[in-house]
Specification:
This protein has 8 helices and 18 strands. It is α+β, with helices and mostly antiparallel strands.
Length: 329
Amino acid sequence: MNFKKIALFALIFLILGTLYYFLETSNKTKKKEEPPAFIPGFDKQQAASVLIKSPEKGAAHLQTKDGNWMVSADNRTFSADTAPVDKLLETVANLKAETIASKNPKNFGALEVTEDKGVEVHIRSASQETLAHFYVGKSGPDVFSTYVRKKDSGQVILTGTILKTVFEKELKDWRDKSIFSLNKDDIIEYTVAGDVTLNMKKDDQNLWQVLGPEPEAFTAQKDAAEGAPGEFAALKGVAFAEGELSEFELDKPIRTITAILKDGTAKTLLVGKEKNTYQRFVKAQDKDTLFVLENYKLEKMSPSLDKLKPEEQEQAQPADNASAPSPKS
């Protein structure tokens, strides 16, 4: 009798355990299921043109030319910053159709997914094939979601992603703010003139020698010396400026910074007046675009002799004084 009870309890336990296993497995499978892509089959590598129309910020056309992204707006064309373009395409590729928010066309206007109220995004391939065409609407019930609708679609999707900052930008936000794009290893001579002076040159061992302003040359401290031309080589502004050079004192710059490359080419940065306590106006001598540059970058490109001198050289004088015998009383 006891054996039968034990066998019955074991069977019940086995059945309950099996049932629990299948229920848990089913729940996990459901949890793992992701919502479908908002733009199925979208391949960002195929994108060659992105036309964005914003009711508030106007139209911007991003397109590739000779393998580089360009941006056009207000009848002007500039090199585009690849970072926000890549962010845009990556966002489209990852968008999910998480929740159907509405199928009623009367709600489209309120959700700002119509042609007159939404941010229209039209992405095409090099052959002008449409890869994605949709409207970015207002934010969802929380600030981390956005309403979107594919053009000619009868339903609005609520996706759990902040989208307005990705797609709705002004021309200046799409433009490339690079002042120089050089290989820092190609710089063999570096000169600062004006309110700050410095002259450095690489020797045969690829070490930076400080030749001025002090009459006696010395080998520079590596990090500080390489930091200056390194910053110069990949210099980027934070904003643009427009006007006559004299308005920004760039016709008579307070400082010039020049890098000489291996091929003998010279690249010079002109430094103008302050915009505010933290920024100045600058431009590359051979280009027309005017930039706003952070002062900390300017300081990094114009290191003081104290930062360039090796530590042992700086400490040599105090050490010598400390080792000198004190006078007898």
